[in-house]
Design brief:
7 helices; 0% strand; 128 residues; mainly alpha
């Protein structure tokens, strides 16, 4: 049930149907796991449902160093979406993860990401 709630929240934030949100959420979590150290990724895993938490578990190998463009490219390839959809998906997953995990733990994990990727976790400011 928690997995469904997470995917539904991602779908609502990204403005897409849940059946499109699930592969996008999986792609973002897999890519995030490649980018974070094993310890930080694993610390986030217990906050997700059983079906999604294994995506944040990895061996102790060091994180891969790649930036914003490569992160979006990997998500787009894995989810079979274009770059704008990948960016919306990354934003929606990170924002949902932030709320599920809690601020301090989320900030500690994402401290390893470049500033432009961390910025996607922040809600978009509302226009006038």
């Amino acid at each position: 049930m928690a997995e469904l709630a997470f995917v539904d929240k991602v779908a609502a934030r990204a403005g897409i149907p849940p059946e499109q949100a699930r592969p996008l959420a999986e792609a973002v979590l897999r890519t995030l796991t490649e980018r974070l150290s094993g310890g930080e990724a694993s610390a986030l895993a217990p906050h997700l449902a059983e079906e999604l938490s294994p995506l944040l578990t990895k061996a102790a190998e060091p994180p891969e160093a790649f930036g914003y463009d490569e992160f979006l490219r990997r998500v787009a390839d894995r989810a079979n979406v274009d770059r704008p959809a990948a960016e919306r998906g990354v934003r929606a997953v990170l924002q949902t993860l932030h709320r599920v995990v809690g601020h301090r733990e989320f900030e500690e994990a994402l401290a390893q990401l470049p500033a432009d990727l961390r910025a996607l976790a922040q809600p978009l400011p509302h226009g006038p």
